[in-house]
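Final report, results section. Input specification for complex C-07:
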Amino acid sequence: MNWKAFFAMLARDAHVARRNFVALLFQTFLQPLMFVFIFGRVMVGSGYMPPSYKSLLLPGIMAICMVGTGIWAVAMPLIAEFQFTREIEDRLLAPMDISWLAVEKVVAGTLQALAAGLMVIPAAWLLLRPGVDLNVPHPLLFAVVALLVALFSATGGLALGCSVEQTHIGLMFSLVVAPMIFFGCTYYPWSALEKFPILQKAVLVNPLVYASEGLRGTLVPQFPHLPMLAVMVGLVLFNVLLFATGLRKFHGKAVT
Amino acid sequence: MVAGIRTRDLRKVYTSAPPVGAGTGGFSFSGPKAKGKQPKPNIVALDGISLDIASGEIFCLLGPNGAGKSTTVGVLTTRVRPTSGQAFIGEHDVWQEQVAVKRLIGVVAQRPNLDFSLTAREILAFHGAYFGLSSHERAKRAEALLERFKLTDRADQMVRGFSGGMMQRLSIARAMMHDPQVLFLDEPSAGLDPQTRLLLWEIIREYNQSGKTILLTTHNMEEADALCKRLAIVDHGRVIALGTPQELKAAVPGGFLLRLRFGHHSPDLLERFRLLAGVREVRATDNNSADLYADRGGSLVPEIANLASAGSVELCDVHISEPSLENLFLHHTGRSLRE
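Structure output:
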């Protein structure tokens, strides 16, 4: 394995992310924080939502931020670089097995998703306080869940980025990303779907459910959430599935 | 270590639409047409290409668009998996030892593929980093290449705003950054102005003089003639002629080609042309045109005109080409390279 090439590519992605830092910041945080402000502050303040909603909302917002960042950071460049600008060709010709380039994309996406997730906690806390009741009894478990969520966002980005045609980017967001967020137990806990039993079962195919419920279970365990074992199994399975699919599609794009 | 290039009976059949820039060879769609369903295309891009390119040689693949040139380069540079056959760079099998092969080669693709998120200097530096060059070495080589390709004044600008010619120069500089033993240039001078083309030719010759092997593709005969020690003319995924430019030009019967157009002609008239001194071959191309290969050009025209008027045939147009690779291509395929 040629680690020099691998880290050089990681350095390239970090360099580009640094260059686009301000744009990335707005892209990642503006929408979720507006949501936090309206639902957590305005609606709770005006009495339409119970005060406890603030604490319930935060893990979901963190999941949205992480998944949005990871998918965006991996999928969008891949779609453009394979189809339009062909920028990736230079890296495909680097003296390294091309599977490692896919791994590098996943690592870069995971790091960005982790950074976004960890930055949204203080930002949302500042917007919502007082009354956010974060409670992390197992920091290590939280770290593992956060890592798995970040990894899922990046492997999802790899699979999507190598499957979606450039002309279908809009469809990708309206057909895949938006339903995933709305049916991903981000704005409500999974247990809230009890009155919709079919929907409650159906949303279990949505990996974001495990992400939001996992973060809920580790940040605000006082609220009902899926068992942590189910969360872990779900996240690991989706990570493996999405990475395997993404890698296969990546090879299909890289070599004709 | 110097390395040559070897291919054995390379075939490539695309079963889906081939990528842009990876030649689309002879289009031969086959398969039964299922009702309401598109037949799966079977596009033969390479149909048994065998080449032996010595180390230190400048070799050229000459052919029209879609002849299979880019697909050949794709196979040799790990980007297109051949349907059958073998490809070697030096002693390394391209498809068994991809990483070793990638260390030996530098590639300039037909379409610009520069990293738009970086400046010109960063593109060179990161490319060097992928190949494990130290940061000092990267900076030194990048500076020298930017200077050589006359890009120093734009070195620290994003390449997004570069003109086509500048992008092409930077692509070539990038391919040379890790000092590869074998350099692939896929239509390197397409879109370049004449001045830049001459600069590019000079750089290619210079790089070759340092012992490097160069494979370039072109549909420009002048370029093939000016640069290559040997060349292969490809069409429909096959090599139709191979040799030095001089050998190939000499292989055209007579050397000169006169393309004639009449009101109409007759086999009888063409037979009389064949008997003229210096005429080697006469071919009817359709009912009112003929190609005449001869070892002289202009001096034949009055004799042709006389014979035509004696046979009451109107001579509408005469075009004379001197010995060239274009004539060779035409002789082999009946088509012009530009068609």
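Chain B touches chain A through 35 residues (CB under 8 Å). The mean pLDDT of chain B is 85. This concludes the modelling results for the funded period.
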